[in-house]
Amino acid sequence: MSPTPRAAGALALAALAALLVGPVVAGALVLAVLAATAVDARATRRPPRADRDAPAVVARGRAADMHVALPGPEGARARVRQAVVPGVTVQPQDGEGALAASLVGTRRGRHMLPPAAVRLRGPLGLASSDHAVGGEQELAVFPDVPAARRIALAVRQGRFREPGSRTRGPLGLGTEFESIREGLPDDDVRFVNWRATARLGRPMVNNLRVEQDRDVVCIVDCGRLMAAPVGEGTALDVALDAAAAVGMVADAVGDRCGAVAYADEVLRRLPPRRAGGEALVRACFDLQPRGVESDPELAFRAVGGLKRALVVVLTDLVDLAAARSLVAAVPVLARHHEVVVAGAADPALRAAITKAPRDIDDVLAAAVAVEVDHARAEAVRSVRAAGAQVVEAPPGGLGAACVAAYLRAKARARL
Fold first, then answer.
1. Which CATH entry fits the domain spanning 145-153+160-166+212-411: 1.10.260.40, 3.40.50.12780, 3.40.50.1980, 3.40.50.410?
2. Which value, in Å, is the radius of gyration of the alpha carbons in the chain?
3. What is the pLDDT of residues 78-96, one digit of tens each?
4. At the N or C end, where does the chain have fewer CB atoms within 10 A?
5. Which of 188, 314, 307 is closest to 255 using CA atoms?
C-alpha cells in the first residue's frame, strides 16, 4: 500500500490549516486524513479480478492483439501495466481501467509473459495498492511463417519475383498439364492457351505441373556466430525465417523437406517428408545459438546418405577462418547433392561503408567495416570454389533469395 498524491495534498492542506483554525483543529484534520487514507488502503488490499487475453503463439515480427480487462467495479479506479521480457515488446504497456495493446515477438523461442500489474486506487483516491494478476503465460514465438506462406502462395500462383530480376511467370517447369490461369505480362508465349484465350477474350495460359517428390534439406547452424544481432533479432532468427520459406514452398510444390540443426553436435534432425515445412517450423522454432564453434561435418554426415537433394546450409560467412571447416566439408557433400550456402548480409555493415564520415569515429568504423567485408568476400569465394552456390541477401529478403535458388535448381533439373 502507498499513499497517493491526493493524500499528500490533503495532509499538506490540513497542516496549513493550523495558520487559520489553530493547531488543535488542524491536528484533528490530519488525523481525519490519516484515518481516511487507512480506510482507503483497506479497500485496495483485495486483488481485483482480471481477464488477460494474450496469444499463445505468435510469428516473429508480427503484431498480435493482447487485452487485459477488469470486469468488476474496481476497473474504474485501476491502472493496468504489462511487463515484458527480452525478445517481446508490448505497445502501449499501460492503460487506465484496461489495456488494449499490440504484442510483438522479436526473438524466436519460448518466453514467459509475466503477470499484468494493476495499481488499484481506493474509493477516495487517497491510497493505492499494486497487485499481480493473470499469472505467467508461455508465449511461443515462431519464425515469420506468414511471410513464408505468402512466398509459397506466390510460387504456386506464378507470381513469385526473384530478388533483382523480373517476374518468374508460371510455375510450369514440367510438361504435364495441370490447369489454365489468367496470363501475366512476363508469361512465355509458348504457354498461351489460344482456344481459352479466344473463348474468354483475355490472355489465358497453361499451368504445367512441376516435377515433384524431390528432396530439400535445410541445415541450420546454431553456433556462436549465429548469435550476432541482425535487425531486431539474431542471425539464427533470420536463418530460420529463410528455412521456413523454403519448407513452405517445398510443401506447395509437392517436394519433401527435412532439416538438420547443429552446433558442436546435431541438435535436431528431421528426415525429408511430405508437409516437411510445417514439421520444420514446429521442431526448430525454439532453437537458440550456442556459444561454441560449429562443426558442419557432423551435419553433412547426417544427410550424406540420403538420395540426391538440394541442401541449403544457413550459416554466417564472417571470414575465411570461421568458414574453414565449412569449406573443407562442402566438397564431400557436393559430390552427391546440390549445395547452397546462404547467409544474411548485415545492413549495418553496408551502411558503415557507404555513408559519408562526419568525424574520426566514422572513419575508423568504415575502415573496420571494409576489412570485415573483404574477409567475408574471401570466405564466399572459397565456398564457391569448394562447389557450393552462395546466396547473400538482406535479412528481409533471405527467404526469397533461398527460394529463388531452390526453383532455379528445379528448373535446371539439378535435383
1. 3.40.50.410
2. 30
3. 889 999 888 899 999 999 8
4. N
5. 307
